Amino acid sequence: MNVDLHMHTSCSDGVYTPEELLTMAETAQLGEISITDHDTVEAYSHPCVVSSSVSVIRGIEISTEYNGEDIHVLGYYIHTEHKAIAEYCQTFHQRRLERALQIVDRLAGLGYELDRTPLEGLIKQGVAVGRPHIARMLIEKGYFATIADVFQEVLHRGAPAYVPYQRCTIEECIELIHEAGGVAVLAHPGLIQHNLQAVLPYAFDGIEVFHPKNWGRENEFMEIAKTRHWLISGGSDFHGVPGRFPEVVGQFYVPSERLHTLLEYRRKK
């Protein structure tokens, strides 16, 4: 069986709805997936998650940082209706909206005029608004050709329209996931350029060994998991964005036997 434990929907910054994602997962013959939207569990309010022939591990990807660098924490097997998770998502949605509107204001000062209404509408739908949503709006207005162009020019950390936002600490993210009954996994360590060794001592339960940005370093991350007795995870980080690998569900997957300890964790609960 092939699995993909890192996927995003339109409930955060993915392109496809939960229904569309699950249909594509079925077509790709994935046996098990996890929808790990950024700072939201809205996807799990969709009936398709329960009715799909694809088994779904309930998950989330929480945003934090260390020493000015983005660090993401994947939470698996969480109780998505847990009070702490619900409160976190509600608070973070509001923070994301406030940040998005500040970015729109900065863009206006740079000559890029955008309507705030669509962003406010997304928040009302339970979507965790982020920079990719603003990037798509800029493309629709004809200001840029691709999302990569938008980030390179105006939205990357330190760019003219970038606005930092308040996030939970790594400890708080891990505690939140544990409180909701889940396991906390360090996401895509291959993307952590400067602070990997510094964040490893935190109380993670696992590490995402298999990820498109980890190519060539899987053995390194496997050794970290072995040394620390951590669970091993893996997934495509699928968003459905043109030009961002993988563009198609099933283009990147992990054989289930490589993640057997994490997949068996459900039965131990």
UniProtKB/TrEMBL annotation:
Cited InterPro entries: PHP_dom, PHP_domain, Pol/His_phosphatase_N, Pol/histidinol_Pase-like
Source organism of the structure: Megasphaera paucivorans
Signal sequence residues: none
Identification of the protein by name: Polymerase/histidinol phosphatase N-terminal domain-containing protein
Polymerase/histidinol phosphatase N-terminal domain boundaries: 3-66
GO molecular function: 5'-3' DNA exonuclease activity; 5'-3' RNA exonuclease activity
CDD domains, per database record: PHP_HisPPase_AMP
